[in-house]
Design goal:
This protein is an alpha+beta fold and about 140 residues long. The protein is built from 5 helices and 5 strands.
């Protein structure tokens, strides 16, 4: 498996291949934004688009990250991670860690995802320190 980061100027070319996957991930998170917002952030360099492919260029995963600059240290956030055959590519997070450390001096990586990510990331040194819970008001279920 290969992890490919797309530069802001490459987003328009690759977007048709990833937009439905990104939108599906956002749909599972109650649509606080849609894929067009993610696309614009990637084109501006606010967020980064990563794609996991195999030797045949089949897409197995799509991830969106963001670097959060903080007073004491920077944090690399994995905002969206979606795809199939996760056991085949979950180890690619190490490449993201290295990139975030090298280019942005990140001292921490945070991954936001569904509960199934816990069992996949624990062997890679990630600890389950807390859970994010949401309460939606105003008619959302």
């Amino acid at each position: 498996m290969y992890l490919i980061q797309f530069k802001p100027e490459e987003i328009d070319k690759v977007w048709p291949l990833v937009k439905d996957k990104i939108q599906a991930a956002l749909d599972r998170n109650r649509n606080f934004r849609d894929h067009t917002h993610v696309k614009e952030n990637c084109k501006k360099g606010i967020e980064q688009l990563w794609v996991i492919t195999d030797k045949k260029d089949d897409i197995h995963g799509v991830c969106v990250s963001q670097i959060m600059e903080q007073a004491n240290y920077n944090i690399g956030l994995v905002r969206i991670a979606t795809g199939h055959d996760l056991p085949l590519w979950v180890d690619k997070i190490k490449e993201f860690e290295d990139w975030a450390s090298k280019h942005f001096d990140c001292k921490k990586i945070e991954v936001y995802g569904r509960p199934g990510w816990k069992k996949m990331l624990a062997p890679l040194g990630y600890e389950f320190s807390h859970v994010q819970m949401d309460k939606f008001i105003g008619g959302l279920n």
